[in-house]
TrEMBL record:
GO molecular function terms attached to this record: xanthine dehydrogenase activity
Coiled-coil stretches noted in the UniProt entry, renumbered to this chain: none
Protein name (database record): Xanthine dehydrogenase molybdopterin binding subunit
E.C. designation(s): 1.17.1.4
InterPro entries listed in its UniProt record: Ald_Oxase/Xan_DH_a/b (IPR000674), Ald_Oxase/Xan_DH_a/b_sf (IPR036856), Ald_Oxase/xanthine_DH-like (IPR016208), AldOxase/xan_DH_MoCoBD1 (IPR008274), AldOxase/xan_DH_MoCoBD2 (IPR046867), AldOxase/xan_DH_Mopterin-bd_sf (IPR037165), Xanthine_DH_Mopterin-bd_su (IPR014309)
Domain Aldehyde oxidase/xanthine dehydrogenase a/b hammerhead: 27-133
PANTHER family named in the record: XANTHINE DEHYDROGENASE
Taxonomy of the source species: Bacteria, Bacillati, Actinomycetota, Actinomycetes, Kitasatosporales
SUPFAM superfamilies in alphabetical order: CO dehydrogenase molybdoprotein N-domain-like (SSF54665), Molybdenum cofactor-binding domain (SSF56003)
Sequence segments annotated as region (Disordered): 780-805
Record has Oxidoreductase as a keyword: yes
The keyword Transcription belongs to this UniProt entry's keyword annotation: no
Pfam family, one: MoCoBD_1
């Protein structure tokens, strides 16, 4: 076992414990960024001046009327920026734009003594624009050839030969929606200036170092004059990785110009209409199978809806391409990617970061092709799994480690879920119920862990031991409710060999740990855990030398377990507190900076080849649904999940992440339907689903009636801290089983062998139209003339009819 993964005697990791802030969460005492306003004197409030047109050039901006509003202190415009007027890492996001790029784009900000004064001031600002043509949908952009950013192509094997050797070739098209983050806490920041003119920003951000960098270049100052702290977030899901930076810069600019603290917080409607979403995608594909149903070749073009600026669209697209294989061996592949430029909000990171979009494409293909091949969908999926001992690599050239786990979790789900017996019960139920059908689908997940950009795979930590034996840890990761801080406390206590109550964790700050990566890519525990372990090991080695001198033993023979140092073969003990005090008087350094970099990664973005991931997280889920044939309404009767988290650092946290990820994925695939006004009227480009009343989120009523989650046992990951694996993003893709079950239930209303197209999200309406298409299908399995997307209101949610060649 590797040094990184080996666990000592009686570790704190692996113990089920509640979230470290759970008590504060449920009692309402947990503080978030905007709560700090009440503790700050003379705060000004910022409000955006939004232009409610999808696209236009500003011809006049008059701020004088706002300054006449009682309580308005200042109006911030581009003329006030001392540094660079840009809030993006690609320098394509002007903080104060002279061209409106989406409906609701903020072109100026008003600072007021109260939020109401700022709001009234913003309403008084006069903006004149010259309206320009706008592209709202992905189809609009594709038709107009409107793209930006990189256009990668991933190739593997000989695609033409693969199709020539295929007994069955199918082509198709698939378009699916994005997703709103809908975190509980909207974007927020509070900026203050100290007596030396230095800027301190409290920000709800997943990436404090990048927030610091953007604020510094907007203000025209070096980074050491800006400190960013993230106390905690009320949810992030990727939506606070890139997008908080400009908002924090507005608050910082206001504070710098007025000398007063400036508070910024979007209300829910502003957050929904001004911040980016998960990228919606369009896929055009061609796939070939041999006579046994094994994939021979895949050719596809994936188009991501990037919105008006690049943001993180390029790495999102790259990860989508890297995950189009999911758990399946594709010997010959050619997959191209491109990013559409539309006049909507700039789409951004969202849990899974493109991986779900790529994986959804292959799962949709297999779900549609299985009936055409005369195979049960489970059987088709199993036949195409990566297999051990075959030397198989992904389409981008990375060897697939632990391929046997794909089959292991699959078989465990089949056994735990009693799949064979339940499928027989479902067949009997369906035969007896002409207007209600049930179905059970099983899908798997193989998700690569690490940032695609190799440089981001590093983490830092600062660990301090005080004279009384208490320990304070700082690390570069941020807490958004996912339990990262809980795991880091467990890692520190385990490495030092002390009880958990001895360790406390400080808020994430850029003046404690510099140049951190975003808490994203499911790598928070790997990177920061490795750094904390490194710092604690430095401290432990120093303390072992002190303990050895006190115990009359060799340092290599001393162990610190549960806060007591002992030498092997001796009953003499030295308590932790006494050991630390002794070390202090011996002038032994009791602080350490830790560092970790993920080894073994390499990636060439131009050739789209390499090994960008440290390892793969594996999982499988079985979902049973029941569908009403009159309305398309459905319920999830049962879900069984087996997921690979290595040796869990904190099992209760990990099971919660699996459950939450699954439900969020089911929301994306079945409920959450983003809609924009695509007409040519005055509200063109307006987000129509801008509240919880029009944007349906999963809640208790959508939870599975029976929900069984098991973590794969004996699953040590040699390359990660204490043998664990990432858990944040991979479980979201387990929800593919919900969509595939709905597809199969809809097909059950038609003749055997019917291939059903299903829109995404698979709302009850979409399921109804899929049922209608199945009912009209002929015995040969050909769909009716109306596609599954018909009646969904927009072509963008639809799927092109499957065609054989």
């Amino acid at each position: 076992m590797s040094h990184l993964s080996e666990r000592p005697e009686k570790p704190a990791v692996g113990v089920s414990m509640p979230h470290e802030s759970a008590y504060q969460h449920v009692t309402g005492t947990a503080l978030y960024t905007d709560d700090l306003v009440q503790r700050t004197k003379d705060v000004l409030h910022a409000h955006p001046v939004q232009v409610m047109k999808a696209h236009g050039r500003i011809t006049a901006l008059r701020t004088a009327p706002a300054l006449a509003v009682p309580g308005v202190v200042r109006v911030l415009t581009g003329a006030d920026v001392p540094g660079v007027n840009d809030a993006g890492m690609k320098h394509d996001e002007p903080l104060f734009p002279d061209e409106v790029m989406f409906h609701g784009h903020a072109v100026a900000w008003v600072l007021g003594e109260t939020l109401e004064a700022a709001r009234l001031g913003a309403a008084a600002v006069e903006v004149e624009i010259e309206e320009l043509p706008s592209l709202i949908t992905l189809q609009d952009a594709i038709a107009a050839d409107s793209y930006h950013g990189a256009r990668p192509v991933m190739t593997h094997g000989d695609v033409d030969a693969g199709f020539a050797d295929s007994a069955h070739v199918f082509t198709g098209e698939f378009q699916f929606s994005g997703q709103e983050h809908f975190y509980l806490e909207t974007h927020a920041a509070l900026a203050q200036i100290d007596e030396n003119g230095q800027v301190f920003i409290q920000s709800s951000t997943q990436h404090p170092s990048e927030t610091q960098e953007i604020v510094a270049h907007v203000l025209g100052v070096p980074s050491h004059e800006v400190t960013v702290q993230c106390l905690r977030m009320g949810g992030g899901f990727g939506g606070k990785e890139m997008q908080p930076h400009g908002f924090a810069a507005v608050a910082a600019l206001g504070a710098k110009l007025t000398g007063r603290p400036v508070r910024f917080r979007l209300n829910r409607t502003q957050d929904l209409t001004m911040s980016g979403k998960r990228h919606g995608f369009h896929a055009e594909w061609k796939i070939g199978f041999d006579t046994e149903g094994r994939i021979q070749a895949l050719e596809a073009t994936l188009t991501a809806d990037g919105g008006w600026s690049l943001d993180l669209s390029e790495p999102v697209l790259a990860r989508a391409l890297c995950h189009i294989d999911n758990t399946y061996w594709i010997p010959n592949a050619r997959v191209a990617g491109r990013i559409a430029k539309t006049h909507t909000v700039s789409n951004t990171a969202f849990r899974g970061f493109g991986g779900p979009q790529g994986m959804l494409v292959i799962e949709d293909i297999l779900g549609r092709c299985a009936p055409r091949l005369g195979l049960d969908p489970m059987e088709l999926r199993e036949r195409n799994f990566y297999r051990p001992g075959q030397g198989q690599t992904t389409p981008y050239g990375q060897p697939v480690t632990q391929p046997e786990r794909i089959a292991t979790v699959w078989e465990q789900v089949r056994a735990d879920g009693g799949i064979a017996d339940r499928k027989r019960e479902i067949a009997a139920f369906n035969a007896a119920h002409p207007h209600t059908k049930r179905a059970l689908a099983v899908t798997g997940v193989k998700f690569g862990i690490s940032f695609n950009l190799t440089a981001f795979n590093q983490g830092g930590a600062l660990v301090l031991i005080y004279k009384d034996g208490s320990v304070l840890i700082n690390h570069g990761g941020t807490e958004m409710g996912q339990g990262l801080h809980t795991k880091m406390l467990q890692v520190a206590a385990t490495t030092l060999g002390i009880p958990l109550h001895k360790v406390r964790l400080a808020p994430t700050r850029t003046d404690k740990v510099p140049n951190t990566s975003a808490t994203a890519a499911s790598s928070g525990a790997d990177l920061n855990g490795g750094a904390i372990k490194n710092a604690c090991e430095q401290l432990r080695e120093r303390l072992l030398q002190v303990a050895a001198s006190q115990l009359g033993a060799n340092a290599s023979d001393v162990r610190i377990v549960e806060g007591v140092a002992r030498a092997l073969g001796s009953d003499t003990e030295l308590a932790w507190d006494d050991l630390v005090r002794t070390a202090y008087f011996q002038r032994v350094q009791l602080s350490a900076a830790g560092y970790y970099r993920t080894e073994g990664l390499h990636w060439d973005a131009k050739s789209f080849r390499g090994s960008p991931f440290k390892y793969f997280a594996i999982g499988a889920a079985a979902t049973e649904v029941e569908v009403d044939g009159f309305t398309g309404a459905y319920r999830i009767r049962r879900v069984d999940i087996v997921h690979d988290v290595g040796d869990s650092l904190s099992p209760m946290i990990d099971i919660g992440q699996v459950e939450g990820g699954f439900v969020q994925g089911a929301g994306w695939l079945t409920l959450e339907d983003l809609r924009w006004d695509t007409g040519d009227g005055p509200n063109r480009g307006r987000l129509l689903t801008q509240a919880a009343s029009t944007y349906k989120l999963p809640s208790f009523s959508e939870m599975p009636e029976e929900f069984n989650v098991h973590l794969l046992e004996n699953a040590t990951e040699e390359g990660a801290v204490y043998g664990s694996k990432a858990v944040g993003e991979p479980p979201l893709m387990l929800a593919f089983s919900v969509r595939e079950a709905l597809r199969q239930a809809a097909a059950a209303f038609g003749p055997d062998g019917v291939s059903v197209e299903l829109a995404s999200p698979a709302t009850p309406e979409a399921v109804y139209w899929a049922i209608e298409a199945a009912r009209r299908a002929d015995a040969a399995g050909n769909g009716g003339s109306r596609s599954a997307a018909a009646g969904a209101g927009e072509v963008r949610t639809g799927a092109k009819a499957l065609s054989g060649a």
